[in-house]
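Per reviewer request, we include the raw input and output of the structure prediction for the construct analysed in the revised manuscript.
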Amino acid sequence: MSARMRVASRPEHEVLVCCARSRLRPEDEQRLRALASGRIDWVYLMSAADRHGMTPLVSWHLKGACPEFVPSLLRSRLKTFFSRNQARNLFLSAELARLLAALGDAGVRAVPFKGPLLAELAYGSVALREFQDLDVLVHQQDWTRAEKIMLSNGYTRDLRLTPAQEVYFRRLQHAHSFTGACGRGIVELHWSLASRYFHYPVDSDRLWQRVETVRFAGAEILTLAPADLVVILCAHGAKHLWERLEWVASVAELIRACDALDWPGILAEARRLGGERMVLLGALLARELLDAPVPESVVEQARATRRVAPLAGKIVGRFFAEGAHPPSTAESCAFRLRLMDRLRDGVLCALRPAFIPDVADWQLLSLPSSLYFLYYPLRVLRLTAKYASSLFTAWSVVTASRRPS
């Protein structure tokens, strides 16, 4: 971890940082052994690992570097967890290959991203990441055909919408979720990479032009170009305020796995699309926190770009804060306002969730198409009531605690 981004933290946090890579360097292994042989709160460590999506990596590296220092009961539990996670991920990998073959046979070009493919590309093994669903991107004009193929392969769509709601949903969102029979898992079938609620610096047409072919689960499949995948991972982390260390690790490991990324080209396109800060933030976190091989010129640009370094510092501070909690709505809005290159994008990302109706509003009240405009004030009223109730509850607790006993 860079001295520029080092924070006062518990030894358990250092264990997480040491383990946040697919292969330990000699100095990482030495440091991990020194930490594990000291005073480690193992319950706290595993709770933090779970929160950061790091349990597979922590399990793998503790077993490989210093199993003798891990309590026997925890060692047994980690072995069981790792085996189950590996088995599930292998099953999902085979299921992904099956679905891609079915889509391909129907003439639908489909590109998986994240999930098991990211584990293979970045970590070299599906066992070293924890994921719950499969993400597959298809052309927007192919989505209806792809949906029929999903249904014919034993999947059911999670949302049932009226035709009018479906049109509205497709305009605002980017994917529908499907659940497979007999525990086959969840598939998110995308017609776009991002909803209108958050700005992704991705040119969809150029992204499709740059797709590549890789071998996965015994078959040749399409994948996003490494440069595009780096940008998407940076945008995904930013969308969720980089709450999990594993998201930084995925960016760092993907950068390590790629021989020669065209950083000037990546940043030029991100700048054109209004997302340069987003990419610079992800690159800075990967370099300063996990020593990813990001060129020094990119690191210096990130440090010199307004707001990037302060945002990175806040993110790392949240990683290692005692009693960390999910960011509040106000924190999320402030982060997005500061993150976006263009003020307009920041304002829209911050305010759209408050004003644009979604499924929760439709489920609360079903309106005919001619009255859809009423969903806008309905959403404002619903959210006002929701958060007013929370504030009232908090105020009641505070005032009650001040009363003399």
